[in-house]
Design a protein that fits this description.
Number of strands: 0
Distance between the termini: 30 Å
Shape: globular
Structural class: mainly alpha
Largest sheet: none
Amino acid sequence: MINPRCAVCGHISRVGADACELCDTRFDSHAAAGGADPSGAPAEPAGARGGAAREGALPTDIPAPRFLGVADVVSPTLQVYRKNFVLVGQLVLATTLPLALLQCVAYVLINSDEWADRVSAPGAGPYALTAGAVGGVVYWLLTLFGNAVLTGALAYAVVGLQRTGAARAAECLRWGLTKMFKLIGVGLLSALIIYVGPGIAMILMGLVLGQLAFVGFLMMLLPWIVLILTFSLVAPAVAVENQGLFGAFRRSAELTKGFKGLLFLTYFLWWVAISALGLILTWSFTYGGEAGSLAGLVAQTLVGGMLNSSMTVLTLYIFLGILNERRHASGADAYATAG
């Protein structure tokens, strides 16, 4: 038997599936042709013959690694880059290309004679400040949208690789676009909960405690780390299980119970590794004299995108690994929930 391909969206599903696992179109002839039978009735959605419809969520009852140690998730993460480097490179390139183009435009503009004349003219301070502020906002927006699409695309790619051993960049990007606004929402809410809230609390603590503010910071450090780990799986909950904005936070808190120590060790070691690699690459650009050149800026953006994507892939394998552990603990066939 082969993995059936949907004639509507092109998604490759598991062997024996009677409907597309992405768009829920049935694999019989009339559904594939137009999504309706000859009488004009709509195609029967997946789950109509038993079970609940998934509303387009990717299934997670797929071959997945265990999560008993750091190597359990680091090994498949490295394998993705070793065997599917071109695929990941295509996804990173597609989602960081607008940012790279913005950098090219800014580089040409800043190094032009017209720009030099404008900023050196009397009263040019507000003009330069406005241009810098607008450029910063555009840069932030492109980064926000690009990271969201890349996260969704990598989720689709990892699930596809685990299920069938293959994934196509166009399908991954299409999935990332469909999840973009949800991922942006959970990303902004995560930043508000994890960084803005504790940051304001630390500032207030500093004003109240004065010189003892450092002691207060140390007291808040452990709860802050626990908070980060508790909500570390919100993006996979959205991109893989189709969870809603608040459901993703509940799902992440539920899955990370009992795994926070291992999560901290895994993330810390991976952060040290990619930080060291990033410093080495930055030093190589600087030593080679390309750090300030246009080619050097674009290359560093793409390399930075590849390094950042590895943290996303690692998080996805942690998510699948915890689901696998829950399945082993409960003896159930699947632990994934519908969005």
